[in-house]
Write a structure and sequence with these properties.
The complex is a heterodimer. Chain A is mainly α. Chain A has 18 helices and no strands. Chain A is flat and about 95 Å long. In chain B, helix 5 (about 165-180) links the parallel strand 7 (about 150-155) and strand 8 (about 185-190). The longest helix of chain B has 18 residues, at about 165-180. The chains are: A mainly alpha, B alpha/beta. The interface of A and B includes residues 250 and 253 of A.
Amino acid sequence: MEDSERNPLLQSISALPSAGRLRGRREVSFDFGFSLHAASFRYPFLFFFSHVSPTPVSNRPLVPRRRSDAPFFLLMGGISSCFVLLIVLLIAADLAFTSLADFRDVLAKPEIRASIRLTLLSCTVSAILSVIVAIPLGYLLSRFQFPGRFVVDTLIDIPIVLPPLVLGLSLLILFHLPIGNSGWELESWLRDEVGFPVTYRWPAVVLAQFVVACAFAVRTMGVTFDQIDARAEDVARTLGCTRLQAFTKVALPQAGRGIVASLTIAWARALGEFGPILVFAGATRMRTEVLSTSVFLELSVGDLNAAVAVSLLMVAIAIVVLLALRVLGTRRLGMAMMSGERSR
Amino acid sequence: MIRLHQIAIQIADFSMSDISIEIERGQYAVLMGKTGCGKTSILETICGLRKPTSGTVWVQDTDVTRFSPGDRQIGYVPQDLALFPTYSVGEHLEFALKLRKTPRERVNQRRDETAEMLGITHLLGRRVEGLSGGEAQRVALGRALAGEPSVLLLDEPLSALDEQTRDEMLALLQTLKDATHVTTLHVTHNRIEADVLADRRFRIVDGVIEAE
């Protein structure tokens, strides 16, 4: 400020209307005046501004206006908490309805134990398969413009938008459609020639879960790679990398958190899958029964207590798995940050 | 040596044609032009990251137009540097040599030499996040130089730096030029850089390259 007081040129600039508005903040006003002054030597047209005759400065007194931010937080928080509250109430109602005895009962049933085992296994297998497919597909869609890209992009959304029951039906038809004069059929070929029957068996559960989970995983990986700067891979290629090496050495190591996120979302989707499993894998106890099917089966025999207990069991399993995956994700991040600080 | 022979580039609505430049072995050439006039596209064409619609690119008397970027022996420092976020500074300097399966001792030796030359020895164990602008610039230069390229391409290397760092980097580029004699094409819109460094100057005016 002292400089501007000594320098008449700067004084005239700080008297400009816009500079006057900035006056409340001393250093801003000073910076502005000084940079314009310096700039006017390099850009002569700015000199015009530095010779504008002084205009009156606002004489408004500086008084705090006591405006509250409370309405902002009330409105935003109010709307947000409605949804959170709804979820809490849903779980609370389930908890109030059921009792510990119900839990003991369902956990004692061998069918439910088999169902828990199959659920954990099938969700894990389909989530891992989804990520294995999602990484290359997400990368290709993120990095390349190719003919038919739009079609591929749209096809991936089909499992997301298709009604689940329709998806199950489509899978069933795909495996049992007779082709050609000989009536060749995918399911019978798999059963008789390969020795790996699918329909109404556990592979059908995994496949039904995979189709939907994978679509979500691909979207997640696509966003992940969109956020990773492709320039680094370009530079890696100039340094001698093939495209594959640039992908594995530069892009993939940066995608760690995206892979965990993708795994999480695929697992969660697989857990919630019901319609396609019912149609394509059936609901055979001890064989193709997963927890979502268990809820349906218990409901259909009128055992509401067991159905609610199994539902809460699913909620508990989901929370444990999602928390574990989140810890995995943040630990990677935490380790990265720690090693950054260590080396500093 | 770098030679562009009647290169034409087409990117969406933007096009340049009949670009011919020749930079002798060991020369430091500066290419000047306004922002958005296609300077970066020319560098990308030399690296092989962009395919020209016609014309040929020559590096050390070899027509590399159909070579993949990794086979052209080019050290490229892009404007945004594009450092590898998951690599340490040391790993950046080792990157090109390790790809070529250079023996471990040679990699270490070359890494240390390059770090010494660029004054980043104290940073070798550090990750790249949190490096200052000047430090990051040195790492990007080191990553390009450690692989002993026949040609160095610099895309506005000093544009994002504060004034003091810019002077330091200018001096460093001068030192590198004298020490390595690597054929260099330096793209900039700053005349001072050209005055200090250039053996040869080119200018892009209205899509045409003129030698000065």
